[in-house]
Design goal:
The protein is mainly alpha-helical and 81 residues long. It has one domain. The protein is built from three helices and no strands. Helix 1 crosses helix 2. The longest helix is centred in the middle third of the chain and has 32 residues. It is elongated, with a radius of gyration of 22 Å. The protein starts with a helix and ends with a helix.
C-alpha cells in the first residue's frame, strides 16, 4: 500500500521531470526536491511556529516558571481539550 500511494507516484514524477529536463538525473533530483519543499512549505511553517511557541513556554533553569509562562501553559492546556 505504501508503494502504491507514495513511492510509485513520486518515482513517476521524478522520471517525468527527468524526461522533461533532457535526461539529466542531477537536475531532475534538484527540481524534484524543490517541488517537494514547495508542497510541504505550509506544514513546515506551521511546525516552526509551534516550535517557537513551545520554546517560549520553557521553564527557566531555577525550576520556577514565570507568571507569563504559567498563563501561556494554562491557555494552551485549555485550548487542547
Amino acid at each position: 500500500m505504501w508503494d502504491t500511494l507514495i513511492i510509485e507516484p513520486m518515482v513517476n514524477l521524478l522520471l517525468l521531470i527527468y524526461q522533461w529536463v533532457g535526461a539529466n538525473f542531477g537536475i531532475a533530483i534538484i527540481l524534484f526536491t524543490i517541488l517537494i519543499r514547495l508542497i510541504t512549505y505550509p506544514l513546515t511553517t506551521q511546525q516552526m511556529k509551534s516550535s517557537q511557541k513551545m520554546q517560549s513556554c520553557k521553564i527557566p533553569r531555577n525550576g520556577r516558571p514565570s507568571k507569563k509562562n504559567i498563563r501561556m501553559i494554562e491557555k494552551n492546556w485549555h485550548r487542547s481539550k
